[in-house]
Fold these 4 entries.
Entry 1:
Amino acid sequence: MTETKQRDPQHQDHQPGIRDGMSPPPTDSAEGYKGSGKLTGQAAIITGGDSGIGRSTAIAFAKEGADVCIVYLEEGRDAKDTAKLVEQAGRRALLLQGDICEADFCKKAVDRAVKEFGGLDIIVNNAAVQYPQDDIADIKADDMERTFRTNIFAMIYMAQAGLPHLKKDGCIINTASITAFAGQPALIDYSATKGAIVSFTRSLAKSLVKKGIRVNAVAPGPVWTPLIPSSFDADAVAKFGSDNPMGRAATADEISPSFVFLASSDARFITGQVIHVNGGEHFG
């Protein structure tokens, strides 16, 4: 299922947003995904796993045989719904609520997941926020700090907490963005964090390659998730993704298979790379 070129004008007042009331509803439940045992017996932790790309990835991982720890900020209803679908796929789901901007919470989350699942094989750093401003002069200091803390600081915190538990063939997968490569005039600080994620991915991959731990990233183009109506105004939401070469935004279910690939042994010779799932955008 694909999204339409335009959607109803809509806006949510609080980030990172909830699924309820989105029109059209997001396609992020991996309903048509068929697992083949690629991640059998593994354990994953996913930040921002309650909705959007994180939700679809959690469910796809479960269908591939992995237990999943879903870390979320405060979207309890969405998180519980995602956990239910993970369990329906026959795997264990662990829900952990907290703020990944805090290093202590990241360590507690990883330790809890390891205790619950008996180990950790996959870290997916996916959670993000964005505060659009058309003029750099209008970027608020508090918003900018929150953007950097959520989007890049938390990835470092999660890596620091998780690496003592990752063994050979473990992996870290980070969610970057097309904005890291193409820029976005209304998302200057957000784009900067996504550029930092690309460099973080490449550097950490080189640091860990001799340990047999792979680090890669996925850079989506526009994707219809709760973050969009909770960060852009209604008029921008109605046109979101229409300037993409494919003329539409992606669904989260079109992004999550890339995470499965990078987590699986199919990608055992891939590290320090970025997969561009962006509907046909190219960069000079």
Note: The chain has a mean pLDDT of 94.
Entry 2:
Amino acid sequence: MVHEVKKQDLATIVEKFGQRYSKLLGINLERGDDEEVFKWFLAAVLFGAPITETSVVKTYKCFEKHAVLTPEKIIKTGWQGLVEILDEGSYTRYDYKTADKLLEVMGNLKTKYRGSLKLLHEKATDSLDLEKRLKELGKGIGDITVSIFLRELRSVWSKADPKPTPLVILAAKNLRIIRSESPEKAKKELVEFWEKNRVKGMSFVNFETALLRLGKDIRRRKSY
């Protein structure tokens, strides 16, 4: 069933569902510190799999508990150690694949950018090149992970301007906020809608995050 969002209801939706995932995890992206950006990148990789928000938060907290929050620490922990952390966080369905992915990505990040995502951003010529460089870190870094990661860096990195994920588009169409399913056109429509219907004290990132959570709920209900 499709519901058209009313302007007076938008604030409720954004305030209820729009908390940034980085804030939920206690990651401070405001100053763009490399260490904090990397923590968010690790979280974005975890969020990139079709797994529940609760499981991702629990798994990230396990990485935090074991102080495995840098490229160097991830590499040093090794495949077996990563699998154990992932299993501890109930990330069992994707544990082997994610351990492989993390080691490949961290190795490339160290080799190409001295382990610095800030350097990766500086070397990118524009938003598209930034996304390309992130994907080239490893075959497990795709459009969804890149979109999740860059979404919360919109106001921090000048070249962070990702397209919305399929779940964001699903929710926006369900609310009749947008018409297009094309990520590029959907992004434009979402920005235009937000510019006309801003919620005081909230940002476009909060709006997009709220749509993501709504999209997950729609997908879950459709699967039953």
Note: DSSP finds twelve helices and no strands in the chain.
Entry 3:
Amino acid sequence: MRASRITRTVAAIGAAAALTAGIVACGDDDSSSSSGGGGGGGGEEQVTIGLITKTESNPFFVKMKEGAEAAAKENNVKLLTASGKFDTDNASQVAAIENMTTQGAKVILDVPADSKAVVPAIKKARDAGVLVISLDTPTEPEDAVDALFATDNLKAGELIGQYAKAKAEKMGIEPKIAMLDLAPGISVGQLRHDGFLKGFGIEEGDPAIVGAAPTQGDTAKGQAAMENLLQKDPGINIIYSINEPSGFGGATALKAAGKDPKDFILVSVDGGCEAIEKGIKTGVIDATSQQYPLKMASLGVEKGAAWARGGEKPSGYTDTGVELITGDPVDGVESKDAAYGEENCWG
């Protein structure tokens, strides 16, 4: 998941009204932020670009903001930033899109909190001449934006599904699967879920699946979801988690139930530094699909600024890469070790 706030301008009447209404989320001492510089751009006119993340607390979005800020300095970009109060906070994102459009953003980079609900606000911004690029999470439909820079989330799920299947065979266990999902209506969660099933070689409704529960990518909700699923079947031995915070929550519930990490397989997606250090290296998380948020945001700023200055218009999908990270590799599934994970992690 990440950091941010919306820039105050000299003519801040519209933005101030929005902030008074409480529709732009913030968790710091200030409700808005901007950055930019003349480190790049060759003396060309400064371009205003907005970045909207789901939250400002998740290290994933913190790293995404860092990538955007660095690229802003290199490309003479004034960067506006904003975020929601929680992962599915669509109202804050809609307000931020409207405010950034009013403040003259030529490009808006958005990580959709709700893949469908945000589409009308995106359309309004595009109709006003703003280039809108989704980061990390596709909209529904995907062509509601001009371009998408993201991990192949289906592949990310497929990699950990393949790993879980191969390790289950290695351990000689009969799969009993718990799925700690994100929430309905968010494409990234569905893609990872579907990818895991594909990688594991099963379909929705397979008897190996004990159950699935939404976690909103949250540690506490992941723990609660796992506790409920264990009541349904205490023999669960394979856990898919939408992200590492939910996975750690699931692991806490399993530990409380007297389960040893050696007796179950827990896989996840993200590849944050905490997950590598406290999950992969300790064996609590068996494998994770690592993605690269800094690259998503830096590409968005770079390509967006180039377009605003008359360059090529970004379009379609750009894959920003994914790698399976594990401390216990299995035959037939390509992976990188914990050292690689640490070198390329975020947070």
Note: The CA atoms of residues 196 and 266 lie 12 Å apart.
Entry 4:
Amino acid sequence: MELSLKEIGTATMVLFAVIDIIGSIPIVIALRQKAGHIKSGRASIIAAIVLIIFLFVGEEILKLIGINVNEFAVAGAFVLFFIAIEMILNITLFKEGEDGPDMSSVFPIAFPIVAGPGSLTTILALRAEYQLENIIIAILANILIVYVVLKTSARLQSILGKAGIAIIKKVFGVILLAIAVKLFTSNIQELFN
């Protein structure tokens, strides 16, 4: 077991930027208004289970379809790049389907908001570079942040305001863009070696 504060810190920041739970506060508030109540604990636990299971079996699924982790990480770098562009330029490239108000608030939050394609791709990309235990700690740290944000979303929106949320989104967009470039360059070299 090799615990590394640097790896845990970087993986936590990457996942925080990809999950973008602060930027999702308006979505969370809209869901709260539709459903009347959000099951924060259940949504957080389901998201954690999905992310951790994918961390362990995601690579096997890739092997089954004939793709290695480096190839997936390069593809993941492109996904992260586009998510970062969305955050920085405030445009929408990925469109989410609308769920009816009768749909439980757990699933739109657990999947696809927290454990969505971006975070699943990121987990496998991180696995190509970091130790498993460090990634698991980073996932759990992010799930804790998600839980706190879900519990306090209405209060956070009034404290940060639209401008505050927009600034946070842009800052994490730039960080995510830099991480996407690093992920691409380190894994593209592995493919040509």
Note: Residues 132-192 form the longest helix (61 residues).
